[in-house]
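Pasting as-is:
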Amino acid sequence: MSIDRLIELDQWVLWKKMTHPESKSGETKVPVGANGRATSITNKKCFKSFERAYNSYINNQDLFDGIGFIFTEDDPFVGIDLDSCHRWNGWQEIVKKCASYAEISPSKTGIHIIMEGVTPGESHSFKIGSHANGGIEIYDANRYLTMSLDPLENFTEVIKNQDAIDWIVKTCNDHSVFARIAKTEYSKKVESLFTGNWSGLGYASQSEADLALCRILGNIGCPMHQIDRIFRQSKLMRPKWNERRGKSTYGK
């Protein structure tokens, strides 16, 4: 694991799980101070060296649930948070495209990627989709990323890869996909497929309708992970999509 450049920075924070009524799981990961009380990552007093944060966590696991890295405007790093990876197939494509440090999230349900680069626009963050269905969030300042220090094999080095960030923003923006479709001959067909009204389109089965929607999305340039995410939002989505087929799934 090589996150030495991050370890050199005093931008580490402790966190713990706390109840949160608006969270689907009922919990949220809150940055905390040495006393275990909630704090803000804008409060520089909560910034710690890696060694101090890690040792505090290891020696007080009844008080803390982990450590995290704080992104600021003064560092060159970007965090990418891939949520609920067990619900969608495309996260592997994003990890490979980024080719930078990637680890399993502390919750074991997501993937966190860190690389050098910047987010688009001036907000320092960019969000696509929802947490429950495999959302993607990118940020480079005023946020922190919980860290498990459990990297994926072959993705242990933090590299600079602005092209990958730009690719994610371009290919993962679902709104732009539907805007492109609206200008094509597929517009009405996609609307019918997306709303589950496939029986009047001449398909012999829903499986044929599934394939038709995926092909149209592929033809207009959607990568695999985006096809998967968009399909899951459609009325064609059913348990069969996740059924195992050998080493893959029906949807993949």
